[in-house]
Design brief:
226 residues; Glutaredoxin; Glutathione S-transferase Yfyf (Class Pi), Chain A, domain 2; 2 domains; four-stranded mixed beta sheet; 60% helix; binds glutathione
């Protein structure tokens, strides 16, 4: 197999999800980052225009879930991301979809609504780029994230209500981890990778939410395992 290339933003949970999925499968890869103004090249990488994009075996794949499925199909001998047993597989896919489509918005909310979190996100997203690009990125980031989260709906809710909903999600994860080592059964799957990468991105930039997440002992230990 030729070397896989992951086109990514370091700050993107979906890109981190693919990086961890590749590591789980034991596939070596190189990373191309689109920090700062290099982000203007992303729309040319695929029709959808989002990251992650993975070049592998002469193919270009877009979307973290499609990539994860491909990795299991193309490398069946390596540790699986999705279980074979249908009920477990369905549960894994539901966790993954919930994480990508719902949990993700909490991360965007906590970044858009907190000046410190936004500052950290801009810092990571402009690493290796000239200082003026960082200055340009900050207002663009703020407008993009705020608009997205308002359109989605969380951005129109009170901070207290959003934090209470997030706490409920954490309580559910903590409760599942009190009966099994991973989210579905006793081995790490894409469910764990998808949820953990979203939580890790919240931990990375949101100081208040970092404390909330890490106050859950089972989640804290599980994040270290995943
Ligand atoms: N469902 C996609 C979501 C990817 C996604 O939303 N990526 C964001 C970065 S976190 C992106 O590329 N945003 C740029 C845009 O929407 O134009 C996946 O799982 O890969």
């Amino acid at each position: 197999m030729s070397q896989a290339i992951l086109h990514q933003w370091e700050i993107s949970p979906f890109c981190q999800k693919v990086a961890k999925a590749l590591q789980h499968k034991g596939i070596s890869y190189q990373v191309v980052n689109y920090n700062g103004i290099l982000g203007s090249k992303v729309p040319r990488l695929s029709k959808v225009g989002k990251l992650p994009v993975l070049d592998i075996n002469g193919q270009r794949l877009q979307d973290s879930t499609r990539i994860a499925r491909y990795l299991d199909d193309a490398f069946p001998e390596a540790p699986r991301l999705y279980p074979i047993e249908p009920m477990a597989k369905a549960q894994v896919e539901i966790w993954e979809d919930w994480s990508d489509e719902s949990l993700y918005w909490f991360e965007i909310y906590f970044r858009a609504m907190d000046a410190n979190a936004l500052e950290l996100a801009v810092e990571v997203s402009s690493q290796g780029r000239p200082a003026y690009e960082r200055m340009m990125l900050k207002p663009l980031f703020k407008v993009a994230l705020t608009t997205q989260v308002r359109m989605q709906g969380l951005g129109r809710m009170s901070k207290t209500d959003v934090e209470a909903e997030f706490e409920r999600h954490l309580a559910r994860i903590e409760s599942v981890l009190s009966i099994s080592k991973y989210l579905v059964g006793d081995s790490c799957t894409i469910a764990d990778i998808a949820v953990a990468t979203q939580l890790n991105e919240i931990i990375r930039t949101s100081v208040p939410m970092r404390a909330v997440i890490l106050s859950k002992p089972l989640i804290k230990a599980w994040l270290q395992r995943v």
